[in-house]
Amino acid sequence: MRKIISLFIAIIILLGIVHINIFAEGNVQNENIEMFSMPQDAKYAENEVLIQYSPVGMFADESDVSPELMMSENLESVSSVELIDTLSVDKEDGSILKQLHVETEDLEKTINEMRQIPGVEYVEPNYKLYVANTDYDPNFTKQWAYNNPVYNINVENVWEKVYNDNISKTETIVAVLDTGVDIYHEDLKDNIFKNQEEIYGNTEKDDDNNGFVDDIAGWDFLNNDNTVYDNTTDSTGEKTDSHGTHVAGIIAAAKNGVGMQGVAYENVKILPVKFIAGKEGGIFQTL
Ligand SMILES: [Ca+2]
Ligand SMILES: [Ca+2]
Ligand SMILES: [Ca+2]
Ligand SMILES: [Ca+2]
Prior knowledge:
Layout: H1 2-25, E1 44-53, H2 67-76, E2 80-89, E3 96-103, H3 107-114, E4 120-127, H4 155-164, E5 172-178, H5 196-199, E6 219-220, H6 242-252, E7 268-274
């Protein structure tokens, strides 16, 4: 009998512990739901959220409970919520999209609380949307690396900080070791390095005494002359200086209302260093 009483007491204690644990779990967030973090620099309507409620599978008999009523009751437990508009109702699965006003100082925290409500598919700030920036050169939209979910280089944010916020106006010279560069191209001509001492010096004389005669805009190591754009074709029929021109464009095509827009479209000068002959290549020793 004593053993039975001891066992009974042990079961009661065990149940007590289990009960306490279950109660405690009610106060922690569901670890299966990924925490939402407000994106940096996000712009959104203040104190507003969009919430998608999809009650599929929550009710044994959907006719028993109105999903809309259930969501309203659940939302009341989170915060002071006011319906602004019901944006859509899917009659097939009962899902509802609502625009809500939430009286809160901490929208991120409130969104994370709402995400714990059973049946809530997503909650997010009511983000502000803007028309695509039309201030770019026409081929900007074809420059896929600028806006690509996999390889996105986030260049627009960099432009905003460097150019619009005037962080740096220091000019940088970038040497392009490649084929020649079309230094007369409308997108490049203003962003080509110019050796001032040779421009204003004497022709056929090495004015700056650097070993290269009349090296006004880089040097052609392939032919050992000062014409970095020879506009010739190689044995495959390919223009010999197209690759270097393309590379220079990616770096420094001007923001000038035509063509493409380089990653560094201002405050950069390209120094063409030609040593490759189109697809025929070049050798390192040339340099
Ligand atoms: Ca020189
Ligand atoms: Ca000269
Ligand atoms: Ca040349
Ligand atoms: Ca351009």
